[in-house]
Amino acid sequence: MNKQPQTDRIIIFDTTLRDGEQCPGATLNVDEKLVIARQLARLGVDVIEAGFAFASPGDFEAVEKIAKAVGTEDGPVICSLARAIKADIQAAAAAIKPAAKGRIHTFISTSDIHLEYQLKKSKAEVLAIAEEMVAYAKSFVDDVEFSTMDATRTDPEYLYQVLERAIAAGATTINIPDTVGYTTPSEFGALIKGIKDNVPNIDQAIISVHGHNDIGLAVANFLEAVKNGARQLECAINGIGERAGNTALEEVVMALHVRRQYYNPFLGRPVESEAPLTNIDTRQIYKTSRLVSNLTGMLVQPNKAIVGANAFAHESGIHQDGVLKNRLTYEIMDAQSIGLTENQIVLGKHSGRNAFRTRLRELGFELSETELNKAFIRFKELADKKKEISDWDLEAIANDETQQTPELFHLELVQVSCGNQARPTATVYLRNPAGEELMDAAIGTGPVDAVYKAINRVVNVPNELIEFSVQSVTKGIDAMGEVTIRLRHNHRVFSGHAANTDIIVASAQAYVNALNRLYGSLQGDQTLRIGRGESSMNESGVTEESVVVQGSMVNQQ
Ligand SMILES: CC(=O)SCCNC(=O)CCNC(=O)[C@H](O)C(C)(C)COP(=O)(O)OP(=O)(O)OC[C@H]1O[C@@H](n2cnc3c(N)ncnc32)[C@H](O)[C@@H]1OP(=O)(O)O
Ligand SMILES: CC(C)C(=O)C(=O)O
Ligand SMILES: [Mg+2]
């Protein structure tokens, strides 16, 4: 067996901003990516895959800005994806240039099915391209990662050959992607072992793995890969990503953390060693999860491992009894280890700006002066309605203020009348991008439906509402309600998110946010008129099928 060059530590490569963003509706703008990248650096990831620089001018700008702002000497490596094509590699190299430590990640498919149908190339051709493009990437940076796309459906003998040639050409990390989420733990472990045993120059590269969760095995596959020599794990926050998503960072990191004594020997450490297996500051996990969920609009299911709302909640009497006697009877990790803390400072209507700013900083939010002032006004409004403001309320407010959706349409007013004897009617008042004030009213099957129909009459963008979900972020009748919606326009999905104690206001704001994203993506499209849609508008009312209500609905007026 070959000796590996790597340390006894697992490198965490975060692809939330690249593969994570590849899930429908999770599109992030440049500023939002920057906010997430800063938090990923606080979380302690070793590598941030900031995007696919060649894919679009926006992606290029995001990678470049992240390289400049987050890719400092003591910060993470900043990486851009690139196909095994010169133009892609040139774009990646230019975008990561401002980073103190930059990486080009180039890839090509190696499975028969991809070669035959997608690339339409022979094995010999792909072998030559891989070698040539790794060498080309190496001419820009020392740190080159090479991936064999669809590795888990590739003939292993061919895979060994491609990897050997890529390493010889200068790849310092070789990544084995389970692109279609097809492999199983023992099979994946055997593949990694096969690579260690059969690629002659494997001692010159780190073995990395990239997983997808199509059959729910992504984390299990990674853990088996670690046991067999993988030392870099590619994952995304909350497991977001193409199709069923990527391997969830928080799950694999906490598995290694909680069971470190089990994994220690596989990394050549003494069983009892308490030294962390990764550089991740686990106390930043919860905060990062919430930030990514809020900015992408991808909700976290309540029973999700590690970061779900119920992950540390005990409901049944026997469990509660055990936990009260000794927490360890039913808890394998401490809620504080992922950053869920008791609120130490009680914020309420008498609190000032300093306490507010300080608490937001502790929660990981760095707001600009303007954002802080707006958030403070909302905080005071909320404090007038609620006795005590929790961290979750603060997060909802801060996330709302830092969301970087371009405000093309501004919601000035929303008013509804409804009741068991009334036809739900809504009046809305919006300011369009030209600064004109537009008002309209509509009747709907319920108050939210009426509001959305009224907004549709003002904003002339055909769309289909495909998801509407409401979550109560805090407990009690005075809770903040978070609304997340997803709408589709020409096969693209846009999400919108807003929080308010008035669920109707949050619903209206979330819809306007999503429409602003949609509208932003269409800017320059001459066929669109600005505002005031009539017959060209598709009905996008909330239908029974499209409504997903999670948690309790709070309607406090
Ligand atoms: C498994 C993954 O996650 S891979 C990354 C997936 N992410 C993305 O695709 C998001 C960004 N992608 C894009 O913006 C676009 O697809 C672009 C800009 C990269 C390319 O756009 P287009 O030039 O219009 O090509 P299109 O997307 O239609 O097809 C992909 C082309 O790349 C080729 N290709 C795919 N992978 C590779 C690769 N690794 N190396 C070289 N060529 C490749 C395909 O064979 C196809 O070539 P063809 O047009 O000669 O048949
Ligand atoms: C680009 C590669 C690493 C990828 O995302 C995959 O194969 O899933
Ligand atoms: Mg992938």
From TrEMBL:
Q: Which organism is it from?
A: Allocoleopsis franciscana PCC 7113
Protein keywords:
Acyltransferase, Amino-acid biosynthesis, Branched-chain amino acid biosynthesis, Cytoplasm, Leucine biosynthesis, Manganese, Metal-binding, Transferase
HAMAP family under this entry? LeuA_type1
- Could you tell me which pathway this protein works in? Amino-acid biosynthesis; L-leucine biosynthesis; L-leucine from 3-methyl-2-oxobutanoate: step 1/4
Name of this chain's protein: 2-isopropylmalate synthase
Query: Could you tell me the gene encoding this protein?
Result: leuA
- InterPro entries given in the database record: 2-IPM_HCS-like, 2-isopropylmalate_synth_dimer, AIPM/Hcit_synth_CS, Aldolase_TIM, LeuA/HCS_post-cat, LeuA_allosteric_dom_sf, LeuA_bact_synth, PYR_CT
Q: Where is this region: Regulatory domain?
A: 410-557
One GO biological-process annotation of the entry reads: L-leucine biosynthetic process
- EC number(s) from the headed UniProt entry: 2.3.3.13
